[in-house]
Amino acid sequence: SIGAMVKKFVYVYLVCSFLLVALSHAAAPSMFGLHTVGNKLVNKDGAVVRPLGINRSGTEFRCVAGSPGIFDGPADQASIDAMKRWDINIVRVPLNEDCWLNINNPPSQSYAGTPYRNAIKGYVDLLSFNGLAVILELHWSHYGTDLAMGQEPMPNQDHTPDFWTSVANMFKTAGNAYSNVILDPFNEPFPENNVWDSTQGWLCWRDGGNACRPWLWYTAAGMQSLVTTIRNTGATNIILLGGLSYSNSLKQWVAYKPVDPLNNLVAAVHIYPDTICSNLNCYDTVIKPVAAQYPVLISEIGQKDCGTNFVNALMDWCDTNAIGYMGWTWNTWDCGGGPSLISNYDGTPTNFGSALKTRFASFAGVTLSTVVTSTSFVSATFSSSAASSSASGPSSVTTGAPPSGGSLYVYHDGLTSSFQDRTFADPSPYNL
């Protein structure tokens, strides 16, 4: 009948409109189901992904500040929308060991223990809802009974294994849930008095304990013990491991990397103008050989004067070698005190931030070839490009009878924002 034909036409029109609206957003591979295959980071669809994103500082220090809290600045949907306008796909969130475990007398019980853990979980859930990958990393820690008020040379045996048992149990992958979460056991190790490369330094990094004597004044937990601790919870998440010298050295990372029964490890590097590995020769001779065997992520880059010459040269090298990178930091701090990506939480970039925002935007477009639905009643072929603000297509559409009820599953190989990995209840064709 004419009515049925009109209804079918409207239905197909709505599906196609949904696809076009989705493609007007930055399209990127899904950041769920992350795992390693050889030296690649791969998602649930088997597509290679390249992390490009930001660090969000605050949750490591605000809970122990004189006027305590949890976040430094907003952590709501509007703030994440501002991040997404930069075309990022990953956010790194630093944590405080004592606030998570509620030990060593944090200044306020309102921001430690359960309230702190719930706030972090809520933030991770919100970032995940927005299609972003999340790195959780231990940034501030302390052995014994003193409060964690800064970075230590190595994880401690007193509390760090308990910390990771708790964190991994909360965020371990269960189906699709938290399959976008990467665990970073310790931010910027600097064993053996910050040596950039030595056998003893790497032994301490991997093994902890007596390998860190005599220069370390507490019993360290090595990276092998933390990898084992995480895996013993049943967590299969990717584990990110930075090397020596504040995570600047990967010189012997391959030789001393921990044994992981899942072989799901990624090497992390932090690079700033004042680090030892901060030139093309080091990138080519130290980082590139590791990247030929294992995935590598430069999880902190920055330029403390908020200039762009250094970071542009570094990003050029990363782009040529398909290595991901993340800017430090998405906070409205004075650039004189360190790299700051933004001057306002609406996403207004600093000069330094503009360089990263522009670079991220240049990688925002992808090509989609097929949309698969649960009933195959509609299929479309179309493309999207970072050079265009809107998608072309659909160039071809095949229709069949729409379902009379149940659910419509639209899989689109990684459309981000509110369209990613969603299930739409569809008792009628008008509920899209």
Number of strands: 15
Radius of gyration: 23 Å
- The topology string of helices and strands comes to HEEEHEHHEHEHHHEHHEHEHEHEEEEE
Report helical residue fraction. Answer: 25-40%
Average pLDDT works out at: 83
Describe this protein's structure.
The chain has 432 residues and is of the alpha/beta class. The chain has 13 helices and 15 strands. The protein has helices at 2-24, 77-84, 97-101, 114-129, 160-171, 191-194, 199-207, 223-232, 244-247, 253-256, 280-291, 309-320, 351-361; strands at 35-37, 40-42, 52-55, 90-96, 133-140, 181-184, 239-242, 265-271, 296-301, 324-327, 372-373, 378-383, 392-399, 407-411, 423-425. The protein has an eight-stranded parallel beta sheet with strand order 6-5-4-3-10-9-8-7. β8 (265-271), α11 (280-291) and β9 (296-301) form a beta-alpha-beta unit. α5 (160-171) packs parallel to α8 (223-232). The protein starts with a helix and ends in a 7-residue tail after the last strand. 48% of the residues are buried.
Offer a concise description of the structure.
With 432 residues, the chain is of the alpha/beta class. The protein has 13 helices and 15 strands.
Topology:
Layout: H1 2-24, E1 35-37, E2 40-42, E3 52-55, H2 77-84, E4 90-96, H3 97-101, H4 114-129, E5 133-140, H5 160-171, E6 181-184, H6 191-194, H7 199-207, H8 223-232, E7 239-242, H9 244-247, H10 253-256, E8 265-271, H11 280-291, E9 296-301, H12 309-320, E10 324-327, H13 351-361, E11 372-373, E12 378-383, E13 392-399, E14 407-411, E15 423-425
Parallel strand pairs: 3-4, 3-10, 4-5, 5-6, 7-8, 8-9, 9-10
Antiparallel strand pairs: 1-2, 11-14, 12-13, 14-15
Helix pairs in contact: 5-8
